[in-house]
Structure formats: C-alpha cells, structure tokens
C-alpha cells in the first residue's frame, strides 16, 4: 500500500520537530524584537527536518501557527506591559493569510513562518519602539554598579543590538557613554558636597580606578577632574547634562 505511506509520520521526524520548537520557545524569552525574531525563526527553520508527507506538513503547519500566535501574544504583552484593547491584533489570521499564498513555495509552512516572524516583529517595533527611556532610567538608577549593554537589555526586555541602535538614535549617545556621563556627574556631586575626598568619591560612584575617572572626564567634558572641580556648580551641571529628548523621532 504505497499510498498509505503518504499519510503517515515517522516518530523520529516528529520528535526532532518538537525538540526544535521547544528549544526555540526557550530562546524567545529575551528575543521579542525584530532582530531576535528573525534570528530565532531562521535558526528554527534551518534545524527542522523537511516534511515528507501531507500529514507531516499539516502537523508542522499546526505547530508553527500555534508557536507564532503564542510568540506574538507574549511579545505584544511585553511591549505594552499588559493587555491593551486599543492595540489588538489577530496573529493567527496573519499566518493563515500568508498560508493561502503558499503556491509554488517549497516547504510552505516553514517559509510562511519565517516570513511571518520577520514582518510581524518589524511591525511590532514600529508600533512599540525599544523602551530606551526605561533603559536610560535603569542606567541612572544603577550607575554605581557594573552596567553592560546585555544587563540593560535584559532589564528592559529587548535584544541588545536593537537597544543599542535605538538608544543611540534617541539620545545621541550609546548606553555606555550615557552611563559614563551619569557616573561622572554623580562623582562631581559627591565632591561638591564635601562629604568625600577624591579617592572616596570615585570608588563610591563606581569607578574601578582613578585612571578610568580621569579618562572619562576628559572624553566627556574636555576638561580634567581638577578643572571641573574649579568651575561653578551651574557650569559643571551644564557640561555634564544628560540628554532628555530624542534626537530622531520614531
């Protein structure tokens, strides 16, 4: 009965697909912007074995549709911080609409899912840009601690590459430069109050060494720490002022 084989599925194929889908679900946890979506979708598709029968094709389609709906709902809720009725969506309809255009495409369920992931998360980012203002607030609150791009991105729930790009576009500074400026301003405040000497102030503010403080002061303000300390308070605050408005609108 050769035709019967067309409607069967092999256990090893199903196990491989389920394993890759489960692995992708774990990766999705911190990859909800368009860069992470594209990378995760591409990785998933490249590792899933091609379906060989109609049954396998339908099983794969069903799993990818369910994954896309769950992924979209999770990403959308993350962008909003909760359910917002005024910005509802029907991710399942998007997937099925793409599926109806599957003629002449090889492995249509895989192709449709890849295209859907890339387009959906690009649209999601356009509607909800990376929360750069929240990232800036987090940096200010943790300026005395060790701050890295990955830590900031994890704190606000976006991909590090997307955060760096959008932060630079919004503030005209990289997250690292913003952190350095914040920490330098904190150091100068400590020195101005008279409660700390130079060494105590720099370590309290989070600098690893005097050299790192002196280098940052020159790069940020064009002045040495000694020169900054000799300026009036208003002049120091102006020199180390943090940008608050976006340089480019989204």
State the order of secondary-structure elements, H for helix, E for strand.
Answer: HHHHHHHHHHHHH
β-strand percent reads under 5%
* Strands, total number: 0
Number of domains: 2
**CA-atom Rg in angstroms:** 25 Å
> Which descriptor suits the 3D outline?
elongated
- List segments where confidence is low: pLDDT < 50 over at least 5 consecutive residues: none
Structural class: mainly alpha
> Count of helices?
13
Share of residues in helices: 55-70%
User: What kind of sheet is the major sheet?
Assistant: none
Topology overview:
Elements lengths: L10 H18 L5 H14 L6 H27 L10 H9 L8 H20 L4 H10 L7 H8 L3 H12 L3 H19 L4 H8 L4 H12 L3 H6 L2 H7 L11
Helix pairs in contact: 1-2, 1-3, 2-5, 3-4, 3-5, 4-5, 6-7, 6-8, 6-9, 9-10, 9-11
Keywords:
elongated; 250 residues; 2 domains; mainly alpha
Any overview of this molecule?
The longest helix is centred in the N-terminal third of the chain and has 27 residues, at 54-80. This protein is 68% helix and 0% strand. By secondary structure, the protein is mostly helical. It has helices at 11-28, 34-47, 54-80, 91-99, 108-127, 132-141, 149-156, 160-171, 175-193, 198-205, 210-221, 225-230, 233-239. α6 packs across α8 and α9 packs across α11. It is elongated. The protein folds into two domains: 2-127, no CATH class; 132-239, Homeodomain-like (Arc Repressor Mutant, subunit A), CATH 1.10.10. The termini are far apart.
């Amino acid at each position: 009965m050769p035709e019967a084989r067309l409607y069967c599925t092999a256990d090893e194929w199903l196990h491989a697909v389920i394993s890759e889908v489960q692995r992708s679900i774990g990766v999705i946890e911190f990859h909800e912007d368009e860069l992470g979506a594209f990378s995760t979708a591409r990785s998933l598709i490249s590792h899933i074995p091609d379906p060989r029968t109609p049954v396998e094709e339908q099983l794969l389609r069903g799993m990818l549709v369910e994954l896309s709906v769950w992924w979209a709902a999770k990403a959308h809720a993350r962008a909003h911080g909760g359910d917002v009725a005024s910005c509802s969506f029907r991710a399942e309809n998007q997937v099925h609409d793409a599926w109806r255009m599957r003629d002449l495409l090889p492995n249509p369920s895989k192709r449709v899912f890849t295209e859907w992931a890339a387009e959906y998360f690009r649209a999601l980012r356009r509607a909800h840009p990376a929360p750069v203002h929240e990232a800036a607030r987090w940096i200010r609150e943790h300026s005395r601690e060790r701050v890295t791009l990955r830590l900031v991105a994890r704190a606000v729930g976006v991909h590090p590459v997307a955060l760096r790009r959008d932060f630079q576009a919004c503030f005209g500074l990289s997250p690292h430069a913003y952190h350095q400026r914040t920490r330098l301003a904190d150091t100068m405040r400590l020195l101005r109050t008279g409660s700390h000497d130079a060494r105590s102030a720099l370590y309290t503010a989070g600098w690893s060494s005097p050299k790192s403080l002196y280098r940052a002061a020159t790069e940020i303000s064009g002045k040495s720490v000694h020169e900054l300390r000799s300026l009036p308070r208003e002049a120091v605050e102006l020199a180390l002022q943090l940008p608050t408005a976006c340089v480019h609108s989204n």
